[in-house]
Amino acid sequence: MPDPSRSSAPPHPWWRWAIIAAAVIVLAAAFGYAGGWLAPDRLTPRRIIDGLQQDSGVYPGYRRNHAKGVCVAGYFEGSGAAAPYSRSAVFGQVRTPVVGRFALPGGNPYAPDSSVPIRSFALRFNLANGQQWRTGMNSMPVFLVATPQAFYEQVEAGRPDLATGKPDPKRMAAFFAAHPESGPFLAWVKTAKPSASYVTESYSGLNAFYFVDAQGQRHAVRWQVVPEARDDAGTGPAAGDGDYLAGDLQRRLAQGPQRWHLMVTLAGPGDPTNDATKTWPADRATVDAGTLVIERAQPQDSGPCRDINYDPTVLPDGIEVSDDPLLAARSAAYADSYLRRTGEEAHLPGTAHPEDKR
After folding, report:
1. Bridge partner list, 265
2. What's the predicted TM-score (pTM) here?
């Protein structure tokens, strides 16, 4: 029969240390798996960013994708039309400050503006209650692929050949043959032309999200900002001007603020929320959630957007991520890129290390 006097004694110290050690081992294994150390063939953010670097080269202190850009700032004037679908304060009839960034895809910050037909627009909404909404949008109707693995395979297929310095057409053709979901993007890009202005472009979020209303009901949505300015013929400037977009932006802003309307599309039954390669039918209900107003621009090396990671999963109460697998992958890859470039900036000659990076 057990001795009651012994059952109340505290456990031996080794027992506690064993529990702590076991916990450390479990955590280490979890981090090892997340980092790919215990599963070298698993796709990780590091592998994605390494692949982007191999395609474009390494430019210390710059983003690994959308490296060439310009900072902008202004505000969003909510119309109240989206308030029935989302309880977020940003959709009330209020003014919310924004810090944004126009950019080109690719990792080369010196690429000519005419080198690609796609422009991007990232925004951070700074809500009065201290919450943030970050979003990254592109001037195309659909994304190239539906999954992170397919994106990585596309990056690998686009790696420049050592002999030519350009992607191997046969390798790219093989990739697209294996990924028929890229068909809508390829059909669009065949006729797309580099625009002569950031200001005249529409920018789409591409991924689906959920708005959550005051009753807790979720509504699947996609959003797009549509410009008021429409005076771009889409032909580009005179030959030899590789940096015309920033100059055009400054000239337009000198004449007054530039405006876009935030158009939110509500999904219908059966509309996919997990596949950014598929559009929703054109007859879906759309609400004008408000007006985005850009008032000023600054170079990205000194402007307010420089140290912002435009992670699309940073959302305020009233907006939630969907089941689109690209969202989590974008978040993780952006974080890896951010840590690399800010660490490099800290070691560049004559570059101060901002307080908010410490």
Report:
1. 222, 286
2. 0.84
Tell me the per-residue pLDDT of 132-146, one tens digit each, with 9 for 90 and over: 999 999 999 999 999
CA 3 to mean position of chain CA atoms: 64
Q: Is 60 exceeded by the pLDDT of residue 328?
A: yes
For residue 57, is it left (φ>0), alpha (ψ between -120 and 50) or beta? left
Residue 156 · residue 168 · CB < 8 Å: no
User: Considering the domain boundaries, does residue 165 fall inside one?
Assistant: yes
CATH number at residue 148: 2.40.180.10
Please tell me what DSSP assigns to residue 92: S
Residue 288, helix vs strand vs coil = strand
Instruction: Give the pairing of strands 286-299 and 69-78.
Output: antiparallel
Task: Give pLDDT tens digits for 21-40.
Answer: 333 333 333 333 333 433 44
Residue 259 reports pLDDT greater than 50: yes
The number of domains in the chain is: 1
Domain membership of residue 177 (yes or no) is yes
Catalytic one of 66, 179, 219, 353: 66
* pLDDT score, position 36: 41
- Sign of the torsion angle spanned by Cα atoms 140, 145, 148, 153: negative
Please name the helix (run of DSSP H) or strand (run of DSSP E) that holds residue 132, with its range, or none. strand 132-138
- Which residue did the predictor score with more confidence, 204 or 233? 204
Q: With bands split at pLDDT 50, 70 and 90, how would you rate the model's confidence at 98?
A: very high
323 phi, psi to nearest 5 deg: -90, 15
Cα three-residue angle 228-136-73, rounded to 5 degrees = 60
Average pLDDT over residues 77-102: 98
Do the domain assignments include residue 11? no
Residue 347's pLDDT band (boundaries 50, 70, 90)?
low
Tell me whether residue 52 is in a domain: yes
HEC profile for 196-248? CCCCCCCEECCCCEEEECCCCCEEEEEEEEEECCCCCCCCCCCCCCCCHHHHH
Catalytic annotation on 66? yes
Task: Please give the pLDDT value at position 282.
Answer: 95
Instruction: Write down the residue that tokens 């690429």 correspond to.
Output: 111
What DSSP state is assigned to residue 174?
H
Q: How far apart are CA 85 and CA 111, in angstroms?
A: 41
By residue range, what is the domain housing residue 317?
44-346
